[in-house]
TrEMBL record, chains A, B:
Pfam families referenced in this protein's UniProt entry, alphabetically: ADH_N_2, ADH_zinc_N
Keyword Oxidoreductase: yes
Keywords for this protein: Oxidoreductase
GO molecular function: oxidoreductase activity, acting on the CH-CH group of donors, NAD or NADP as acceptor
Oxidoreductase N-terminal domain ranges (all copies): 8-116
PANTHER family: PROSTAGLANDIN REDUCTASE (PTHR43205), PROSTAGLANDIN REDUCTASE 1 (PTHR43205:SF7)
Designated name of the protein: NAD(P)-binding protein
Organism: Rhizophagus irregularis (strain DAOM 197198w) (Glomus intraradices)
Amino acid sequence: MTVKSNKGVILKANPKGTPEVDKDFELAHRTIDIENLNLEENDFVLKNLYLSIDPYVRITLQEPTSSSLKYDKKIPIGQVIKGLGVSEVVKTNNPKFKVGDLVFGAIGWEEYSYIKSDIAYAFSFVNKELLKDTPLSYHVSFLRFGGLTSYASLIDIGKPKEGETIYVSTAAGLTGQLVGQIAKIKGMRVVGSTGSDEKVDFLLNELKFDAAFNYKKVDLDKALSEHCPNGIDIYYDNVGGKALEVALEHCNRLARVVVCGMISQYNITNPDERYGIKNLNNIVANSINIQGFMVTDYIGKDIEKEFEKDIIEWIKNGKIIYKETVIDGVENIPKAFVDMLNGKNVGKYVVKIAD
Amino acid sequence: MTVKSNKGVILKANPKGTPEVDKDFELAHRTIDIENLNLEENDFVLKNLYLSIDPYVRITLQEPTSSSLKYDKKIPIGQVIKGLGVSEVVKTNNPKFKVGDLVFGAIGWEEYSYIKSDIAYAFSFVNKELLKDTPLSYHVSFLRFGGLTSYASLIDIGKPKEGETIYVSTAAGLTGQLVGQIAKIKGMRVVGSTGSDEKVDFLLNELKFDAAFNYKKVDLDKALSEHCPNGIDIYYDNVGGKALEVALEHCNRLARVVVCGMISQYNITNPDERYGIKNLNNIVANSINIQGFMVTDYIGKDIEKEFEKDIIEWIKNGKIIYKETVIDGVENIPKAFVDMLNGKNVGKYVVKIAD
């Protein structure tokens, strides 16, 4: 009996606003017969082990429109959703990938993924050196795009300087917690905002931020006046919209705004309903730099190697704490994803699909 | 008889919206007795020769508020308005400045300015080397902040690359015309927008832009699709607001937005009435850099010397055309200023106050 379960999560409907588990997603009980599967040239089959739960996936669930959110292809209704994962090669017709190899790349929200030759180039091997010191779950995001996102953007765009102040929004997410900790290593005053008192505790007591607050309980403008008395030199923005507008009022001359994401705007389907930012005049008045980036801008650059070197050293000597929550089972991916979008996670959500 | 006329333009009222010559400005018929004037230590007196007419002055006419437009001090009602000018030292108690010296700095909209020692540091000498090849009027802006603004921001922030496309708004103003011409020298496709058919002609036929259009007569979105078929790599923004929002939709990956000014927003006194930009998500989607600057960021840097070297060479060998309109008489400053804000100028407005 070579037929195996290959449950997968398919897109049932384009979410309106915040996705809903039952309305927008469906678990398809499919099977796969690996032994009798005929692979075309250079194709291979992956057994998926860990999946990273990332905000950018929300954008791929939109109805395709003339929208400017072009940085990922949209998932058609009825098809398996995609995300970044770590997998084991279980069958291969591609000389580069051998059975047993551990690889990283864009897989489906499913137990097994059939990878066609034309996207094989987008898979790379799990770094065996790093694997000695770190669990496999770290390789799905933290040691890949997740960690590199924080490191490269903070160093390259933020240009952290000792004694300056950084304000990080959604500071308890993977990106935020790493940005804050790296900024501490660089000698900055680190201020974070997050959505629950539990997370504020985590930022202050575990990550040792200089200040942190629950944005749901304060007036942001007043909180920034209180916690950033010398103004903001780097605003690390994961939120966009009104939060960006308020932060711009606190930015010092020559401040850098690193725009990692605009999570406040992702669930807004109608572009006219997005928040309109009225104080970009501050950019001129204070010579402010606002820069967006995608982590792929940094792939293959020197900074990727510097990241691997620094991050392993910082983990080993305890300078960086990395908090993740591992959730079991492909059937729990939609809930993990929606919870993450609703800010329920402390640290990084990773789904364990198989051992 | 040593008493001389010292007419000056004072601020009569804080303009609401676009300033009005008669409502907001008043010509004060004052006199000055230079011979019998007692100077305190390190003070000096200037006879003003040329005044530069610049948009930034509009901001200094606002009522002082908690507004974020902090980059210039507000002019109190009843006081002489300030601007950048070239002047001759006519009396001095400051060993650095001798009678007959030609200097550049912030003077009053008046015939003579009394300069106190505490702001003497902000005056510098007209470059005599450059004066051999250029009229004195060029030294009030073009060879100073005006030209340096275009050069430094385009090179430092815009990073022009051969074959790329630049779109310049208010392209017929001093900044725009220089930016466009330098971009041509750097091998770019140069597209400009401006507010009259006469100026479109000027951009196409005199400055040799690749494309130009009258923004009052077209739909900006369609015009950009037509004239920037390969998208925009540099948007040189003098306008802000809706124009910035539309341009962002045409920006390529890794585009640079140089924010020189937001003239569309300067006349809006109530911050709530400013235009709200809703598509900053493009910054993330396309790794776009939006950067503001002030020309003073570049003063004393290497790029200032490079500018002087390049600009003189370009003028001498005819690679750069500089168009200015010289208006006579201190009493005509308010009209020149209002006309400039209303876009009536082709090229740079300079007021000749005296020979």
